[in-house]
Amino acid sequence: MCLQHVSLNPPPNWNQYLLKLRPESLLFRIKLTGIRARTDCADIYREGFHTSGVYQIYPSGPSIPLSVYCDMESDGGGWTRRINGSVDFYRGWDDYKRGFGSADGEYWLGLENIHALATRRKYELRIDLEDFENKTVYAKYEHFALSPSAINAEEDGYRLQVLGFIDGGAGDSLAYHNGLMFSTFDRNHRAPLNCAQRCCGAFWYKSCHTANLNGLYLKGPHSFYANGIHWATWTGYYYSLRATAMKMRPNSLPFPG
């Protein structure tokens, strides 16, 4: 069972923290009407919207809107992100498939939505990390997809594909998970170990992980092994990070400046 599973609390002054990370950004919602359906944040960026905030995109078609937070400042913008903090990420398969949380705070976009996005274009992935000493690093991958060759992505476990690592100080903790299926406590793809239950999260586990970005929010050093929000090549298995963000965008998006 998941040890030390606790209610999660956000960092203090979370909105001020987000604005500190992106000084020029604002949190806002806009309703897109009478405009061609945008597949992702990059489409919105190309149309002249360069301020970070919550937008609607249509990765699965024009009749199915999806609210996402678009970071328009990191490396030129067009990223779709998720940040851990106030939302409980120890959840089952259906939640991780559909997505949960709020786009203007902490949320998981949903495996099916991520797959729909990543099958339309070639995408890259950036992972931003921050510890409780306000140090920030990132890891970047030039290619990112989920089950790109599968007829049924869910049956294939939304298998992770990442290539082309670029180090931004974090080290590469995701290579270990490349080619693996996603697991939750109620759908384990790495028998006999149930790593999702053992590590109190959900991820592309092997036996078990070097990255656990959906683990418990434990606020820095902790005594239980490997059940926090970890990126092992940076802070190891006994330090849970303050904030993480997984962002994807098309490889072809031009950078400003």
Explain what this protein looks like in three dimensions.
With 257 residues, the protein is α+β, with helices and mostly antiparallel strands. The chain has a domain at 41-179 and 243-250: Gamma Fibrinogen, Chain A, domain 1. The protein has 6 helices and 13 strands. The strands form 5 sheets. Strands 8-7-6-13 form a 4-stranded antiparallel β-sheet. A 3-stranded antiparallel β-sheet has the order 1-2-3. Strands 4-5 form a two-stranded antiparallel ribbon. Strand 6 (123-130) and strand 7 form a beta hairpin. The longest helix has 8 residues, at 14-21.
Radius of gyration based on Cα positions? 17 Å
Which CATH-level-2 architecture of the domain at 41-179 and 243-250?
Answer: Alpha-Beta Complex
Compute the number of helices: 6
N- to C-terminal distance: 50 Å
| Percentage beta strand | 15-25%
CATH class of the domain at 41-179 and 243-250: Alpha Beta
* Cross-sheet strand order for the largest sheet: 8-7-6-13
Largest sheet, if any? 4 strands, antiparallel
Which blocks of ≥5 consecutive residues have pLDDT under 50?
5-35
Structural class: alpha+beta
Helix percentage: 10-25%
Q: Which series of helices and strands comes N to C? A: HHEEEHEEHEEEHEEEHEE
Q: Which fold does the CATH topology of the domain at 41-179 and 243-250 refer to?
A: Gamma Fibrinogen, Chain A, domain 1
What is the chains' assembly state? single chain
Overall geometric form: globular
What is the β-strand count? 13
Protein name: Fibrinogen C-terminal domain-containing protein
Keywords: Disulfide bond
Domain Fibrinogen C-terminal: 32-252
Pfam families: Fibrinogen_C
